[in-house]
Specification:
five-stranded antiparallel beta sheet; 49% helix; 2 domains; 11% strand; alpha+beta; 15 helices; 5 strands; 434 Repressor (Amino-terminal Domain)
Length: 300
């Protein structure tokens, strides 16, 4: 069994608990580390003690034999594993998803009960009009970081990188990505953590499983960070790109959530300095060149 399949054994909740237990040292809770410890982080009995539950019950959680802990147990696990607000929300989502899906026979795709509301064609058309009206590069992404829409400047922003159907594929599989993204090592970790956070309880849906398998096979960095169950949510971030045509771009990335849209978000990239604003104007002029082919965006 490889590392990734070992991490996922027992389901998303079990894998999350095992990974996060490894990342908490006993000294962080004032426990003696000892010279003969055989695990990198806390032992199972230590997590159980800190969470106020029995060791047997915690073992069942890590093995996937118990998937519906009470709110009190979840709170105890949050404290024992030193989870921040993003990770605690993720943990609650995993336990809630287990409650919904227990006893269901699914084919691995997202069940209708978990999909939530979807955007109809009228709203979708309205979102595309909004993107086209923006004077800065903008993309529309879904939970899996599929790039499902954007304005012409958004299409040109990552010019030269392929594939561009999914942002994780773009970062990890596009040959020129490490040189295009000035801070690729940090960006790559954030992309993996954002993908896991946005996927949430649906991290084992068939489509996401295929994507994760593809990225794990193509990138050791992706595989390592994914197995660590790191999580990242952002409302704003700073990016530095080395664009092949207009040179360096310093950008403020704003993330705008779309309620009632099955987890879709708009990513708008605002220039962080005058030089970038000028470069984006140059890039935009090419987007308005008559006869330039447009990009076909995938739907959802």
């Amino acid at each position: 069994m490889n590392v990734s399949s070992s991490r996922s054994a027992g389901g998303p909740l079990a894998g999350f608990l095992r990974a996060r237990r490894d990342q908490v040292g006993p000294e962080q809770h004032g426990l003696a580390s000892g010279a003969q410890r055989q695990v990198p982080g806390l032992r199972r009995d230590e997590v159980a003690f800190l969470a106020g539950i029995s060791t047997d019950y915690y073992i069942r959680l890590e093995q996937g034999r118990e998937r519906r802990p009470s709110r009190a147990v979840v709170e105890g696990l949050r404290e024992a594993l030193l989870l921040d607000s993003v990770a605690a929300r993720h943990l609650r989502g995993l336990t809630a998803a287990a409650t919904v899906t227990d006893g269901e026979d699914t084919d691995g795709e997202e069940s209708e009960s978990r999909k939530g509301p979807r955007m109809g064609p009228d709203r979708l058309a309205s979102v595309h009009r909004l993107l086209d009206s923006l004077a800065v590069p903008a993309l529309l992404v879904n939970r899996r970081l599929d790039i499902v829409g954007g304005n012409p400047l958004g299409d040109l922003l990552h010019e030269g990188l392929e594939p561009r159907d999914n942002y994780a594929r773009l970062v990890f599989l596009a040959p020129g990505a490490p040189s295009f993204f000035a801070e690729w090592p940090e960006l790559s970790r954030c992309v993996v953590a954002a993908l896991r956070a946005q996927a949430g309880p649906e991290a084992e849906s068939a489509r996401l499983t295929r994507l994760v398998g593809e990225l794990s096979a193509g990138s050791e960095v992706f595989r390592s960070v994914w197995d660590g169950h790191q999580l990242y949510e952002k409302a704003m971030d700073r990016k530095v790109f080395r664009h092949p045509r207009v040179g360096p771009l310093a950008l403020e990335q704003h993330v705008l959530e779309l309620p009632g849209s099955e987890g879709h978000r708009i990513w708008a990239f605002h220039p962080a300095d005058d030089a970038t604003a000028h470069a984006l104007r140059d890039l935009g002029s090419s987007a308005r060149t008559p006869g330039r082919p447009g990009r076909e965006w995938c739907g959802w």
